[in-house]
Amino acid sequence: MVDALETAPRLAHQDLGAQVLQAWLDNAARVFYLSPLSVSVPRPGSAAAPARGGVPVLFPQFADQGVLPKHGLVRTAHWRLLQDTAAQGARQLRYELDMKPQDDANWPHAARLSLQVKSKLDELVFVLRVSNTGDQSFNWTGGLHPYFAVRDVLTSSATGLAGLGVQDRYDTDLRSQPPGDLCWTTQPFERLYEACPPVTLDAGGYSLRLSASGFDQWMVWNPGEAGARALADLPAGDWRRFVCVEPVCVTRPVLLAPGETFEGRLWIQVCRH
Ligand SMILES: O=P(O)(O)OC[C@H]1O[C@@H](O)[C@H](O)[C@@H](O)[C@@H]1O
């Protein structure tokens, strides 16, 4: 009998941003893209940079939609690792971060974040919890930003999104996802979906079944050939090696009263062809 632990994805991770960097399946396939040019060591005068790849956590601001640094404050914060274990056929990680009102003048709130990751056989589950530990309500946007490794984004596709309302950064007249599979070209792609139904991503060689709860939108992003040139931490040509399908809350910020907790989950199931 094969021990399920032997086949559960191995995980690499770092406390900066509680960022899962990689998950290896038992055949050594990598679930996530991770740029070899990622630098997480702080340079004098600048904050530590999150790795380009894996699964960054975005909070309390999605992308550049507000006054905070792009994608918020926690992907450049050092989290506490509370659990890193392998038992009963599963690997489990748990990170925690406490945010205090005095940490950032533009977001003067108290919150506790926890990220739990569980890998079992061909499955990964991410659970992000946000608790309001202060005495005033706050709202936030953000979520998870997985960089899914694909053989070639130009031959990859995703199903499950047809007919959903969209906001597209580059095609502002587009109102809904056209019928058929979603495919990518050499052009930059950034499309926010109005909901978060299950999606199947054909990564080339295997598919990833993605489903989420708590989060209520998908953001699908790939910088394309031209957009990638502006990303110093991405080798030329590597934009073809990933697509980000991100479970997020953007259009409807999450309001948390004192003592309330949000819970968002992402399930990633690897299906061999
Ligand atoms: O380069 P960053 O800060 O990691 O962001 C990557 C991309 O992340 C996506 O989620 C956003 O929709 C894009 O606007 C953004 O460019």
Automatic annotation (TrEMBL):
Reaction(s) this enzyme catalyzes, per UniProt: alpha-D-glucose 6-phosphate = beta-D-glucose 6-phosphate
Family, as annotated: Belongs to the glucose-6-phosphate 1-epimerase family.
Organism of origin: Albidiferax ferrireducens (strain ATCC BAA-621 / DSM 15236 / T118) (Rhodoferax ferrireducens)
Identification of the protein by name: Putative glucose-6-phosphate 1-epimerase
Gene Ontology terms for molecular function: carbohydrate binding; glucose-6-phosphate 1-epimerase activity
Its EC number(s): 5.1.3.15
Stored SUPFAM superfamilies: Galactose mutarotase-like
GO biological process assignments: carbohydrate metabolic process
Domain of life: Bacteria
Gene3D superfamilies (alphabetical): 2.70.98.10
